[in-house]
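Anyone? Bumping this.
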Amino acid sequence: MTRALVVDDAKIHRDLVRGILTEDLGFEVTEAADGKQALAAIEEQPPDLVISDLVMPEMDGFELASHVRRQHPTIPVIVMTQHGNERLAVQALEAGAASYVRKDDLAYELSKTVSRVLAVSQQAHAQAQLMASLQKSEASFVIDSTGKLVAPLVHHLQESASQLGLFDETGLTQLGVALQEALLNAAHHGNLEVGSELRDEDTELYMRELAKRMDEMPYKARRIHVDAKFSGEEARFSIRDEGPGFDPSALPDPCDTENLLKCHGRGVMLMRSLMDECRYNDSGNAVTLVKRRSNP
Amino acid sequence: MLEYAATMLRILVAEDSRLTRDVVTSMLENWGHEVHAVEDGHAAVAAATSGSFELVFLDLELPGMGGIEATTAIRAEVKQLPIIAMTAHRDRRDECIAAGMSGYITKPIRADGLRAAMDQVKAGLDWSTALHGLAGRASLLETAVAAFVAEGPLLLREISGAVERGDAESLARAAHTMRGSLSYFGVQRSVELADRLQKMGRDADLGDASAALEELRTEFELLLPQMESYRES
Protein backbone atom coordinates (compact mmCIF):
# COMPACT_ATOMS: atom_id res chain seq x y z
CA MET A 1 0.00 0.00 0.00
CA THR A 2 1.28 3.45 -0.87
CA ARG A 3 2.16 5.53 2.17
CA ALA A 4 1.92 9.31 2.28
CA LEU A 5 3.21 11.50 5.08
CA VAL A 6 1.23 14.71 5.54
CA VAL A 7 2.98 17.55 7.35
CA ASP A 8 0.99 20.52 8.64
CA ASP A 9 0.64 22.25 11.98
CA ALA A 10 -3.15 22.56 11.46
CA LYS A 11 -5.37 19.54 11.97
CA ILE A 12 -7.89 20.65 9.38
CA HIS A 13 -5.39 20.39 6.51
CA ARG A 14 -4.00 17.09 7.76
CA ASP A 15 -7.49 15.63 8.09
CA LEU A 16 -8.54 16.79 4.63
CA VAL A 17 -5.42 15.42 2.97
CA ARG A 18 -5.95 12.14 4.80
CA GLY A 19 -9.60 12.04 3.75
CA ILE A 20 -8.83 12.79 0.11
CA LEU A 21 -5.95 10.33 -0.26
CA THR A 22 -7.67 7.48 1.56
CA GLU A 23 -10.96 7.95 -0.30
CA ASP A 24 -9.53 8.56 -3.78
CA LEU A 25 -6.36 6.52 -3.87
CA GLY A 26 -6.64 4.09 -0.94
CA PHE A 27 -3.37 5.39 0.55
CA GLU A 28 -2.19 4.85 4.07
CA VAL A 29 -1.60 8.31 5.55
CA THR A 30 0.64 9.21 8.48
CA GLU A 31 0.98 12.66 10.02
CA ALA A 32 3.52 15.10 11.37
CA ALA A 33 2.91 18.60 12.76
CA ASP A 34 6.17 20.21 11.55
CA GLY A 35 9.32 19.57 9.54
CA LYS A 36 11.29 18.23 12.46
CA GLN A 37 8.66 15.63 13.32
CA ALA A 38 8.44 14.79 9.63
CA LEU A 39 12.15 14.05 9.36
CA ALA A 40 11.97 11.78 12.39
CA ALA A 41 9.00 9.96 10.85
CA ILE A 42 10.83 9.58 7.53
CA GLU A 43 13.88 8.14 9.26
CA GLU A 44 11.74 5.67 11.13
CA GLN A 45 9.68 4.49 8.17
CA PRO A 46 10.23 6.18 4.81
CA PRO A 47 6.94 7.01 3.07
CA ASP A 48 6.39 6.91 -0.70
CA LEU A 49 5.79 10.64 -0.75
CA VAL A 50 5.50 13.69 1.50
CA ILE A 51 2.79 16.36 1.33
CA SER A 52 3.80 19.39 3.34
CA ASP A 53 2.62 22.80 4.40
CA LEU A 54 5.17 25.59 3.95
CA VAL A 55 4.66 27.79 6.99
CA MET A 56 5.26 25.77 10.13
CA PRO A 57 6.99 26.17 13.48
CA GLU A 58 10.25 24.30 14.19
CA MET A 59 11.19 23.42 10.60
CA ASP A 60 9.32 24.92 7.67
CA GLY A 61 8.38 23.28 4.39
CA PHE A 62 11.31 24.75 2.43
CA GLU A 63 13.88 23.29 4.77
CA LEU A 64 12.03 20.00 4.84
CA ALA A 65 11.86 19.81 1.03
CA SER A 66 15.55 20.52 0.58
CA HIS A 67 16.49 18.08 3.35
CA VAL A 68 14.38 15.28 1.88
CA ARG A 69 15.85 15.95 -1.53
CA ARG A 70 19.37 15.58 -0.21
CA GLN A 71 18.85 12.69 2.21
CA HIS A 72 16.01 10.79 0.53
CA PRO A 73 16.11 11.68 -3.16
CA THR A 74 13.59 8.97 -4.10
CA ILE A 75 10.83 10.48 -1.90
CA PRO A 76 8.99 13.30 -3.74
CA VAL A 77 7.69 16.26 -1.71
CA ILE A 78 4.51 18.09 -2.73
CA VAL A 79 3.95 21.40 -0.97
CA MET A 80 0.63 23.04 -0.11
CA THR A 81 0.24 26.80 -0.44
CA GLN A 82 -2.44 29.19 0.67
CA HIS A 83 -4.25 31.34 -1.83
CA GLY A 84 -2.16 34.35 -2.78
CA ASN A 85 1.15 32.73 -1.84
CA GLU A 86 2.14 31.30 -5.22
CA ARG A 87 5.48 33.06 -4.91
CA LEU A 88 6.29 30.73 -2.04
CA ALA A 89 5.43 27.76 -4.25
CA VAL A 90 8.13 28.80 -6.70
CA GLN A 91 10.66 29.06 -3.87
CA ALA A 92 9.64 25.62 -2.65
CA LEU A 93 10.11 24.11 -6.10
CA GLU A 94 13.57 25.65 -6.17
CA ALA A 95 14.27 24.17 -2.75
CA GLY A 96 13.50 20.70 -4.08
CA ALA A 97 9.73 20.19 -4.01
CA ALA A 98 8.35 18.08 -6.86
CA SER A 99 5.07 19.97 -7.23
CA TYR A 100 2.55 22.08 -5.35
CA VAL A 101 -1.18 22.28 -4.68
CA ARG A 102 -3.20 25.24 -3.46
CA LYS A 103 -5.11 24.48 -0.28
CA ASP A 104 -8.27 25.93 -1.83
CA ASP A 105 -7.98 23.31 -4.56
CA LEU A 106 -7.09 20.28 -2.42
CA ALA A 107 -10.34 18.43 -3.09
CA TYR A 108 -10.02 19.06 -6.82
CA GLU A 109 -6.29 18.78 -7.44
CA LEU A 110 -4.50 16.81 -4.73
CA SER A 111 -5.19 13.28 -5.97
CA LYS A 112 -4.37 14.19 -9.56
CA THR A 113 -1.13 15.90 -8.59
CA VAL A 114 -0.09 13.06 -6.29
CA SER A 115 -0.77 10.44 -8.97
CA ARG A 116 1.22 12.38 -11.54
CA VAL A 117 4.19 12.96 -9.26
CA LEU A 118 4.25 9.34 -8.13
CA ALA A 119 4.10 8.06 -11.71
CA VAL A 120 7.15 10.14 -12.64
CA SER A 121 9.13 9.28 -9.51
CA GLN A 122 8.32 5.57 -9.70
CA GLN A 123 9.42 5.60 -13.32
CA ALA A 124 12.71 7.24 -12.33
CA HIS A 125 13.09 4.85 -9.42
CA ALA A 126 12.44 1.81 -11.62
CA GLN A 127 14.94 3.12 -14.15
CA ALA A 128 17.56 3.49 -11.42
CA GLN A 129 16.85 -0.04 -10.18
CA LEU A 130 17.08 -1.42 -13.68
CA MET A 131 20.43 0.28 -14.21
CA ALA A 132 21.63 -1.05 -10.87
CA SER A 133 20.86 -4.53 -12.24
CA LEU A 134 22.84 -3.95 -15.41
CA GLN A 135 25.70 -6.48 -15.62
CA LYS A 136 27.52 -5.42 -18.74
CA SER A 137 27.03 -3.33 -21.80
CA GLU A 138 28.79 -2.70 -25.07
CA ALA A 139 28.69 0.12 -27.54
CA SER A 140 30.49 1.04 -30.76
CA PHE A 141 30.78 4.46 -32.35
CA VAL A 142 32.34 5.73 -35.54
CA ILE A 143 32.96 9.49 -35.50
CA ASP A 144 34.73 11.99 -37.75
CA SER A 145 37.86 13.92 -36.86
CA THR A 146 36.38 17.38 -36.39
CA GLY A 147 36.21 16.84 -32.64
CA LYS A 148 32.62 17.98 -32.42
CA LEU A 149 31.41 14.68 -31.02
CA VAL A 150 34.28 14.14 -28.61
CA ALA A 151 32.67 15.84 -25.60
CA PRO A 152 29.22 14.23 -26.05
CA LEU A 153 30.80 10.82 -26.54
CA VAL A 154 33.00 11.16 -23.48
CA HIS A 155 29.96 12.21 -21.45
CA HIS A 156 27.97 9.25 -22.72
CA LEU A 157 30.75 6.80 -21.84
CA GLN A 158 31.06 8.31 -18.37
CA GLU A 159 27.30 7.88 -17.91
CA SER A 160 27.52 4.24 -18.91
CA ALA A 161 30.31 3.63 -16.41
CA SER A 162 28.33 5.51 -13.79
CA GLN A 163 25.23 3.34 -14.30
CA LEU A 164 27.30 0.29 -13.47
CA GLY A 165 28.66 2.03 -10.39
CA LEU A 166 32.22 1.22 -11.43
CA PHE A 167 33.89 4.39 -10.21
CA ASP A 168 33.53 7.14 -7.69
CA GLU A 169 33.34 10.78 -8.78
CA THR A 170 37.12 11.08 -9.07
CA GLY A 171 37.35 7.87 -11.05
CA LEU A 172 34.69 9.12 -13.47
CA THR A 173 36.58 12.37 -13.99
CA GLN A 174 39.84 10.51 -14.58
CA LEU A 175 38.10 8.27 -17.09
CA GLY A 176 36.71 11.31 -18.90
CA VAL A 177 40.08 13.05 -19.15
CA ALA A 178 41.81 9.91 -20.46
CA LEU A 179 39.12 9.26 -23.07
CA GLN A 180 39.22 12.83 -24.25
CA GLU A 181 43.00 12.66 -24.70
CA ALA A 182 42.75 9.38 -26.58
CA LEU A 183 40.04 10.66 -28.92
CA LEU A 184 41.86 13.92 -29.66
CA ASN A 185 45.10 12.03 -30.27
CA ALA A 186 43.31 9.77 -32.74
CA ALA A 187 41.79 12.77 -34.53
CA HIS A 188 44.71 15.18 -34.60
CA HIS A 189 47.82 12.99 -34.74
CA GLY A 190 46.27 9.83 -36.20
CA ASN A 191 43.73 10.82 -38.83
CA LEU A 192 44.81 14.38 -39.58
CA GLU A 193 48.53 13.55 -39.21
CA VAL A 194 49.46 16.82 -37.57
CA GLY A 195 52.32 16.10 -35.19
CA SER A 196 52.36 17.36 -31.64
CA GLU A 197 55.85 18.80 -32.26
CA LEU A 198 54.16 21.52 -34.27
CA ARG A 199 51.86 22.34 -31.34
CA ASP A 200 54.89 22.73 -29.11
CA GLU A 201 56.47 25.15 -31.58
CA ASP A 202 53.53 27.19 -32.84
CA THR A 203 50.05 26.57 -31.44
CA GLU A 204 48.34 28.91 -33.87
CA LEU A 205 49.89 27.30 -36.91
CA TYR A 206 49.02 23.90 -35.44
CA MET A 207 45.32 24.83 -35.11
CA ARG A 208 45.24 26.26 -38.64
CA GLU A 209 46.78 23.11 -40.05
CA LEU A 210 44.18 20.96 -38.25
CA ALA A 211 41.31 23.08 -39.59
CA LYS A 212 42.70 22.90 -43.12
CA ARG A 213 43.06 19.13 -43.13
CA MET A 214 39.54 18.60 -41.79
CA ASP A 215 38.42 19.65 -45.29
CA GLU A 216 41.15 17.91 -47.26
CA MET A 217 41.39 14.45 -48.70
CA PRO A 218 42.48 11.92 -47.65
CA TYR A 219 42.33 13.22 -44.06
CA LYS A 220 38.69 14.25 -43.97
CA ALA A 221 37.45 10.78 -44.98
CA ARG A 222 39.18 9.13 -42.02
CA ARG A 223 37.09 8.05 -39.06
CA ILE A 224 37.68 7.16 -35.43
CA HIS A 225 36.38 3.76 -34.31
CA VAL A 226 35.44 3.50 -30.66
CA ASP A 227 34.47 0.24 -28.97
CA ALA A 228 33.45 0.32 -25.32
CA LYS A 229 32.80 -2.65 -23.06
CA PHE A 230 31.53 -2.27 -19.52
CA SER A 231 31.30 -5.11 -17.01
CA GLY A 232 31.00 -5.28 -13.26
CA GLU A 233 34.80 -5.32 -13.07
CA GLU A 234 36.11 -2.85 -15.59
CA ALA A 235 35.57 -0.42 -18.42
CA ARG A 236 37.52 -1.32 -21.57
CA PHE A 237 37.91 0.88 -24.63
CA SER A 238 39.48 0.41 -28.00
CA ILE A 239 40.06 3.61 -29.97
CA ARG A 240 41.37 3.18 -33.52
CA ASP A 241 42.13 5.80 -36.16
CA GLU A 242 42.62 5.35 -39.91
CA GLY A 243 45.94 7.17 -40.14
CA PRO A 244 49.33 5.60 -40.89
CA GLY A 245 50.15 5.09 -37.21
CA PHE A 246 53.48 5.61 -35.46
CA ASP A 247 56.13 3.67 -33.61
CA PRO A 248 54.79 3.10 -30.12
CA SER A 249 58.19 2.10 -28.80
CA ALA A 250 59.25 5.74 -29.24
CA LEU A 251 56.64 6.90 -26.71
CA PRO A 252 57.91 8.84 -23.71
CA ASP A 253 58.66 6.92 -20.56
CA PRO A 254 55.73 7.47 -18.18
CA CYS A 255 57.99 7.05 -15.17
CA ASP A 256 59.91 10.10 -16.19
CA THR A 257 58.11 13.02 -14.59
CA GLU A 258 60.01 15.39 -16.87
CA ASN A 259 57.64 14.33 -19.63
CA LEU A 260 54.60 15.61 -17.77
CA LEU A 261 55.94 19.12 -18.15
CA LYS A 262 56.31 18.88 -21.90
CA CYS A 263 53.37 19.12 -24.26
CA HIS A 264 54.85 16.45 -26.40
CA GLY A 265 53.38 13.10 -25.46
CA ARG A 266 51.27 14.66 -22.74
CA GLY A 267 48.13 12.85 -23.89
CA VAL A 268 49.74 9.45 -23.69
CA MET A 269 51.23 10.33 -20.33
CA LEU A 270 47.83 11.24 -18.99
CA MET A 271 46.21 8.11 -20.34
CA ARG A 272 48.87 5.96 -18.78
CA SER A 273 48.57 7.52 -15.38
CA LEU A 274 44.78 7.81 -15.29
CA MET A 275 43.94 4.36 -16.64
CA ASP A 276 45.05 0.97 -15.37
CA GLU A 277 46.11 -0.15 -18.82
CA CYS A 278 47.13 1.82 -21.89
CA ARG A 279 48.45 -0.23 -24.82
CA TYR A 280 49.03 0.70 -28.44
CA ASN A 281 48.98 -1.89 -31.19
CA ASP A 282 52.18 -2.44 -33.14
CA SER A 283 51.16 -0.15 -35.98
CA GLY A 284 50.35 2.63 -33.54
CA ASN A 285 46.85 3.45 -34.83
CA ALA A 286 44.83 1.79 -32.06
CA VAL A 287 44.96 2.17 -28.30
CA THR A 288 43.35 -0.05 -25.70
CA LEU A 289 42.43 1.62 -22.42
CA VAL A 290 41.26 -0.23 -19.35
CA LYS A 291 40.11 1.15 -16.04
CA ARG A 292 39.19 -1.29 -13.29
CA ARG A 293 36.45 -0.87 -10.70
CA SER A 294 37.40 1.55 -7.95
CA ASN A 295 34.15 1.34 -5.98
CA PRO A 296 33.95 -1.66 -3.63
CA MET B 1 -33.84 41.70 19.08
CA LEU B 2 -32.36 45.10 18.46
CA GLU B 3 -29.15 43.63 17.09
CA TYR B 4 -31.13 42.27 14.17
CA ALA B 5 -33.05 45.51 13.69
CA ALA B 6 -29.70 47.15 13.15
CA THR B 7 -29.23 45.07 10.02
CA MET B 8 -32.72 45.02 8.56
CA LEU B 9 -33.07 42.58 5.68
CA ARG B 10 -35.66 42.14 2.94
CA ILE B 11 -36.66 38.50 3.32
CA LEU B 12 -38.70 36.19 1.10
CA VAL B 13 -40.64 33.38 2.84
CA ALA B 14 -41.96 30.63 0.56
CA GLU B 15 -44.23 28.31 2.52
CA ASP B 16 -47.63 26.79 1.73
CA SER B 17 -48.58 25.96 5.31
CA ARG B 18 -50.34 28.98 6.69
CA LEU B 19 -49.32 28.23 10.27
CA THR B 20 -45.60 27.99 9.51
CA ARG B 21 -45.76 31.00 7.19
CA ASP B 22 -47.36 33.16 9.88
CA VAL B 23 -44.98 31.99 12.61
CA VAL B 24 -41.88 32.68 10.52
CA THR B 25 -43.18 35.98 9.18
CA SER B 26 -44.15 37.35 12.56
CA MET B 27 -40.87 36.36 14.21
CA LEU B 28 -38.82 37.93 11.43
CA GLU B 29 -40.94 41.09 11.47
CA ASN B 30 -40.59 41.27 15.23
CA TRP B 31 -36.83 41.32 14.73
CA GLY B 32 -37.22 44.29 12.44
CA HIS B 33 -37.03 42.67 9.01
CA GLU B 34 -39.21 43.28 6.02
CA VAL B 35 -40.96 40.07 4.96
CA HIS B 36 -42.78 39.04 1.82
CA ALA B 37 -44.50 35.63 1.70
CA VAL B 38 -45.42 33.40 -1.25
CA GLU B 39 -47.19 30.03 -1.29
CA ASP B 40 -45.88 28.02 -4.22
CA GLY B 41 -42.63 27.16 -5.98
CA HIS B 42 -43.14 29.15 -9.18
CA ALA B 43 -43.94 32.33 -7.23
CA ALA B 44 -40.87 31.66 -5.08
CA VAL B 45 -38.56 31.46 -8.11
CA ALA B 46 -40.06 34.60 -9.67
CA ALA B 47 -39.70 36.59 -6.43
CA ALA B 48 -36.22 35.26 -5.54
CA THR B 49 -34.82 36.14 -8.96
CA SER B 50 -36.42 39.62 -9.00
CA GLY B 51 -33.52 41.14 -7.10
CA SER B 52 -35.79 42.47 -4.35
CA PHE B 53 -34.63 40.12 -1.58
CA GLU B 54 -31.49 39.55 0.44
CA LEU B 55 -32.51 36.25 2.00
CA VAL B 56 -34.93 33.41 1.19
CA PHE B 57 -36.60 30.85 3.45
CA LEU B 58 -37.78 28.05 1.20
CA ASP B 59 -40.02 25.13 2.12
CA LEU B 60 -38.91 21.86 0.54
CA GLU B 61 -42.43 20.55 -0.06
CA LEU B 62 -43.93 23.46 -1.93
CA PRO B 63 -46.83 22.78 -4.32
CA GLY B 64 -46.16 23.26 -8.03
CA MET B 65 -42.40 23.17 -7.78
CA GLY B 66 -40.55 21.63 -4.81
CA GLY B 67 -37.85 23.51 -2.91
CA ILE B 68 -34.94 21.59 -4.48
CA GLU B 69 -36.20 22.24 -7.98
CA ALA B 70 -36.91 25.88 -7.13
CA THR B 71 -33.36 26.26 -5.77
CA THR B 72 -31.87 24.89 -9.00
CA ALA B 73 -33.96 27.43 -10.95
CA ILE B 74 -32.94 30.31 -8.65
CA ARG B 75 -29.25 29.36 -8.68
CA ALA B 76 -29.28 29.34 -12.48
CA GLU B 77 -29.73 33.11 -12.20
CA VAL B 78 -28.59 34.21 -8.75
CA LYS B 79 -25.50 32.85 -7.01
CA GLN B 80 -25.01 35.08 -3.99
CA LEU B 81 -28.48 35.05 -2.44
CA PRO B 82 -28.65 32.97 0.78
CA ILE B 83 -31.39 30.32 0.61
CA ILE B 84 -32.38 28.55 3.83
CA ALA B 85 -34.38 25.32 3.53
CA MET B 86 -37.30 24.62 5.83
CA THR B 87 -38.07 20.95 6.20
CA ALA B 88 -39.62 18.47 8.57
CA HIS B 89 -37.05 15.87 7.44
CA ARG B 90 -33.67 16.12 9.14
CA ASP B 91 -32.08 13.67 6.72
CA ARG B 92 -32.47 15.93 3.69
CA ARG B 93 -29.61 18.22 4.71
CA ASP B 94 -26.99 16.95 2.24
CA GLU B 95 -29.51 16.97 -0.58
CA CYS B 96 -30.41 20.63 0.12
CA ILE B 97 -26.80 21.74 0.30
CA ALA B 98 -25.82 19.80 -2.81
CA ALA B 99 -28.65 21.54 -4.68
CA GLY B 100 -27.21 24.95 -3.76
CA MET B 101 -29.02 25.85 -0.55
CA SER B 102 -27.03 27.77 2.02
CA GLY B 103 -28.45 26.14 5.13
CA TYR B 104 -31.59 24.60 6.58
CA ILE B 105 -33.86 24.67 9.61
CA THR B 106 -36.17 21.91 10.75
CA LYS B 107 -39.88 22.16 11.37
CA PRO B 108 -41.63 22.92 13.57
CA ILE B 109 -39.88 26.29 13.32
CA ARG B 110 -38.93 27.75 16.67
CA ALA B 111 -37.31 31.04 17.58
CA ASP B 112 -33.92 29.52 18.42
CA GLY B 113 -33.76 27.67 15.09
CA LEU B 114 -34.69 30.76 13.14
CA ARG B 115 -32.23 32.86 15.11
CA ALA B 116 -29.45 30.36 14.35
CA ALA B 117 -30.28 30.66 10.65
CA MET B 118 -30.06 34.44 10.89
CA ASP B 119 -26.69 34.10 12.66
CA GLN B 120 -25.48 31.88 9.88
CA VAL B 121 -26.44 34.45 7.27
CA LYS B 122 -24.83 37.17 9.35
CA ALA B 123 -21.57 35.20 9.50
CA GLY B 124 -21.64 34.81 5.73
CA LEU B 125 -21.59 31.03 6.02
CA ASP B 126 -23.05 29.26 3.01
CA TRP B 127 -22.81 25.49 3.21
CA SER B 128 -23.23 25.03 -0.53
CA THR B 129 -20.26 27.34 -1.19
CA ALA B 130 -18.20 25.42 1.36
CA LEU B 131 -19.24 22.12 -0.22
CA HIS B 132 -18.35 23.39 -3.67
CA GLY B 133 -14.89 24.39 -2.41
CA LEU B 134 -14.42 20.76 -1.41
CA ALA B 135 -15.45 19.47 -4.83
CA GLY B 136 -18.99 18.70 -3.65
CA ARG B 137 -17.79 15.94 -1.37
CA ALA B 138 -19.96 15.84 1.75
CA SER B 139 -17.53 13.54 3.58
CA LEU B 140 -14.74 16.12 3.22
CA LEU B 141 -16.99 18.92 4.44
CA GLU B 142 -17.79 16.83 7.52
CA THR B 143 -14.07 16.24 8.04
CA ALA B 144 -13.33 19.98 7.76
CA VAL B 145 -16.17 20.90 10.13
CA ALA B 146 -15.09 18.36 12.74
CA ALA B 147 -11.50 19.61 12.59
CA PHE B 148 -12.61 23.23 12.87
CA VAL B 149 -14.79 22.49 15.90
CA ALA B 150 -11.83 20.74 17.56
CA GLU B 151 -9.12 23.20 16.60
CA GLY B 152 -10.81 26.57 16.01
CA PRO B 153 -11.29 27.51 19.70
CA LEU B 154 -7.61 26.65 20.42
CA LEU B 155 -6.47 28.84 17.55
CA LEU B 156 -8.63 31.73 18.73
CA ARG B 157 -7.12 31.34 22.19
CA GLU B 158 -3.61 31.35 20.70
CA ILE B 159 -4.40 34.50 18.75
CA SER B 160 -5.85 36.33 21.74
CA GLY B 161 -2.95 35.19 23.95
CA ALA B 162 -0.47 36.51 21.37
CA VAL B 163 -2.30 39.84 21.14
CA GLU B 164 -2.34 40.17 24.95
CA ARG B 165 1.36 39.38 25.26
CA GLY B 166 2.25 41.57 22.29
CA ASP B 167 3.88 38.50 20.71
CA ALA B 168 3.92 39.41 17.01
CA GLU B 169 5.53 36.21 15.80
CA SER B 170 3.02 33.92 17.50
CA LEU B 171 0.19 36.15 16.31
CA ALA B 172 1.37 35.89 12.69
CA ARG B 173 1.58 32.12 12.88
CA ALA B 174 -1.69 31.47 14.70
CA ALA B 175 -3.61 33.95 12.52
CA HIS B 176 -2.10 32.33 9.42
CA THR B 177 -3.38 28.95 10.55
CA MET B 178 -6.77 30.41 11.45
CA ARG B 179 -7.03 32.03 8.03
CA GLY B 180 -6.20 28.74 6.33
CA SER B 181 -8.83 26.89 8.37
CA LEU B 182 -11.53 29.50 7.79
CA SER B 183 -10.88 29.64 4.07
CA TYR B 184 -12.50 26.23 3.55
CA PHE B 185 -15.87 27.66 4.58
CA GLY B 186 -16.07 30.67 2.29
CA VAL B 187 -16.59 33.04 5.22
CA GLN B 188 -14.93 36.04 3.66
CA ARG B 189 -15.21 38.53 6.49
CA SER B 190 -13.63 36.15 8.99
CA VAL B 191 -10.90 35.24 6.52
CA GLU B 192 -10.14 38.93 5.99
CA LEU B 193 -9.93 39.55 9.74
CA ALA B 194 -7.55 36.63 10.22
CA ASP B 195 -5.54 37.90 7.27
CA ARG B 196 -5.31 41.37 8.82
CA LEU B 197 -4.16 39.91 12.13
CA GLN B 198 -1.56 37.83 10.31
CA LYS B 199 -0.20 40.92 8.57
CA MET B 200 -0.13 42.88 11.85
CA GLY B 201 1.90 40.06 13.35
CA ARG B 202 4.25 39.90 10.39
CA ASP B 203 4.78 43.66 10.42
CA ALA B 204 5.09 43.61 14.24
CA ASP B 205 2.54 46.42 14.37
CA LEU B 206 -0.11 45.36 16.90
CA GLY B 207 -1.70 48.79 17.38
CA ASP B 208 -5.07 47.73 15.94
CA ALA B 209 -4.78 44.07 16.88
CA SER B 210 -7.14 44.17 19.88
CA ALA B 211 -9.93 45.69 17.80
CA ALA B 212 -9.44 43.20 14.98
CA LEU B 213 -9.34 40.37 17.49
CA GLU B 214 -12.68 41.44 18.97
CA GLU B 215 -14.24 41.53 15.52
CA LEU B 216 -12.86 38.09 14.76
CA ARG B 217 -14.16 36.80 18.08
CA THR B 218 -17.64 38.09 17.25
CA GLU B 219 -17.59 36.33 13.88
CA PHE B 220 -16.19 33.20 15.46
CA GLU B 221 -18.95 33.10 18.05
CA LEU B 222 -21.49 33.21 15.25
CA LEU B 223 -19.68 30.49 13.32
CA LEU B 224 -18.79 27.91 15.91
CA PRO B 225 -22.39 27.01 16.94
CA GLN B 226 -23.18 26.60 13.22
CA MET B 227 -20.31 24.19 12.85
CA GLU B 228 -21.30 22.32 15.98
CA SER B 229 -24.88 21.88 14.89
CA TYR B 230 -23.80 20.87 11.38
CA ARG B 231 -21.61 18.19 12.87
CA GLU B 232 -24.36 16.95 15.17
CA SER B 233 -27.11 16.81 12.60
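Late reply, but here is one note on the structure posted above: Residues 31 and 159 of chain B are 33 Å apart (CA to CA).
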